[in-house]
Write a structure and sequence with these properties.
Blueprint: E1 5-9, E2 11-14, E3 17-20, H1 22-26, E4 31-36, H2 43-54, E5 60-64, E6 72-77, E7 82-86, E8 102-106, H3 113-117, H4 120-156, H5 161-176, E9 186-191, E10 193-196, E11 199-202, H6 204-208, E12 213-218, H7 225-238, E13 242-247, E14 255-260, E15 265-269, E16 283-287, H8 288-292, H9 297-300, H10 302-338, H11 343-366
Parallel strand pairs: 1-5, 4-7, 4-8, 9-13, 12-15, 12-16
Antiparallel strand pairs: 2-3, 5-6, 6-7, 10-11, 13-14, 14-15
Length: 367
Amino acid sequence: MGKHVYNYYAGGNTAKGFYDLFEETLKRLDRIFILKGGPGTGKSTLMKKIGESWKSDDNIEYIHCSADYGSIDGVIIPDLKIGIVDGTAPHVIEPKYPGVIEEYVNLGEAWDSEQLRMYKEPIFQVKNQIKACYDKAYKLFAEALDIHDEWEKIYIEHLSPEKARQLTNRLKQTIFGDKTLHKKGASLHRFLGSATPEGPKDFIQNLTDDIPKRLFIKGRPGTGKSTMLKKLAIEGENRGLEVEVYHCGFDPESLDMLIFRELGVAIFDSTSPHEHFPSREGDEIVDMYEEVIQSGTDEKYEEEIKTLSNRYKEKMKQATAKLKESNHLRNQLESFYIDAVDFSIVEQKQAELEQEIVAWKERLMAI
């Protein structure tokens, strides 16, 4: 019987630029293979094939690529504490304990450098164009965040701190009750989704489909969703739980979801752009607007909210268009490398990695 495949992001295109949580994601592993090599050298395909090979026997985690929806930046077998990850820009990964935990896998051995040098000028040009697209996209996301902050301010000024405190305490009781595990708590930081060239994408349903109790937080910007999640995350860790902490793909300093797998509970921001609704037993809505915001706020500021919403959506649309443009350019860049790569060498690297994983698992089972 197959195990579970979990999907998430460890890096995102945010209002703070590219935001990297790879170190956080990989910190629990005892063995890490870092793939080096240019675009189009088959890193994502290699990792996907290894994931496919192992998913019938072990849980698998796919770290998705925010630059190219459908590609992955890493594959992890958590029970074996082993992972393979793309260590190239923008999430450059270098070993902390080379040879002990991390080691390089150089896919650059598969390319024909002489052929690549023939494309030197167009490669330089396309790389500069890609950088310009990302610089513009990040600027537009930052401008969208400024608008979002104005939008939040309306609700913050009409929020009852006492009602917010009462709601948080009530949710602590709902989630934790009197449960405390007699071990040191921990947190794993990730993204549940990201801005991509295809628009915002999220993996909430995949990450929570084996969770019996799901709490869907509804509300408006500035109704205290992230603040409440931060308090619940601290409470969970203090009670000895391993807390999966999912950051906002737009503003990485905010939180969008917590999963307490040891309790079988998930709580997440279920508003646009990752809006979901209860669909099964164990699903509940937590309405922040109804719980903590002064009645009539929506009506009182209707026109101002509408204007801010439209301005925000337009900035996000423009930023996504820049990501899409960057993706077209990325495909051009990859084509230069694809033409110069001997993929039989890449396949040999994949076979060697699979042998390493088999040997690692046998060693663990013998302990």
